[in-house]
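Protocol step 4 of 5: obtain the predicted structure for the target chain.
Materials: sequence only (see below). No template structures provided, no constraints applied. The aim of this step is simply to have a reference model before the mutagenesis design in step 5. Sequence pasted as it appears in the construct record:
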Amino acid sequence: MKNLAKLSEEKIKKIWAKSEIFLHYTGHMYGIGAAALNQQACRKINDLKQRDGKGFIILIPEISWLERYGLEYNHKFEKIIKQFWPANLTLILKDSQSKFSHLAMNGTVAVRIPDNPELREFIRTVDEPIVSTSINNSGESALTSLSKILKLKWFDFSFLPHTPEIAEGEPSTILNLSKENLEIIREGRFALSNFQEALAHPKIIFVCTANICRSPMGDYIARKIVEDENLPYRIGSAGFLEGGIKISQNSYKVLKEQGYDASQHISTSLTKELVDDCWLILTMTQEHKIRLKELDPNLGNKIFTLSEYTGYTLDIDDPYGLEISFYRKTFDAINTRVREMFDLIVNLENPKREGV
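Step 4 output (structure tokens):
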């Protein structure tokens, strides 16, 4: 069986065009897959698994594909999608254009953006959604041993860039976004409370190198706006270096000049738990953004530089070690952008409201 993982895009597309069933690894479990719009291939998977039904999960590589294939959800749940995807999270969405009627149940389908970057890139290459389901006969436990799976001879090819002999990942969380209210079908890594908190109090953090100069400025400015305007956001900041350091002297002085007391600020180091808890991550430079994406390739939906998010082109450079006048210029730049950030966010959520 040919493994397409190390082949060129051209060869992958050529093999894809004349094949149907393939083996893949989601990052958590081994799966049997096929083109989601290929009804014959989907029926073949049912035959192989000796099952009669629908219920396959559709895998897509990015959020924009939801609109592309008519997969709809209530707009009020958009923060959940942007915060948690890609992840081991399956969402029940409306199949508004009936493109997946052969997979749909009561007009809805199960959709996931897998947190395996290689699998997402493979889906982009073949340029169509795929179905993914466990490898087992109906009523039996899913196979997790690669050697046992390969003995089945079910597959036309495989896409296996990095694969353990035993896949021990837990099943995905399943969340229904097709109704008016949130409904969790199956808890896995995430609980209903995670999604409720993300909707009620989305978290925004500012990121710079050490979390002692620029990002604390964004942090304190944003907290004051949230307090004054009674906005629902949680605010924080962090840096790439080890935490536990007080704010820089000049940042403290400049913030104090503007009425902010940053005497209690202690730097925080970026962690996976912290970024997972965020709806929006705003870095001071493109370099920070690139470094974060290298640490976690699944942050693409929620990480921006503060400048690009608000329509500016220049990074906010580090004033560390410079005269206080540079810190004042840095504060002015961050202050302008943070206030415009809230204008954008609030007006998007409340189109009839004018300004913050």
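Step 4 remarks: The longest strand covers residues 89-95. The radius of gyration is 23 Å.
Proceed to step 5.
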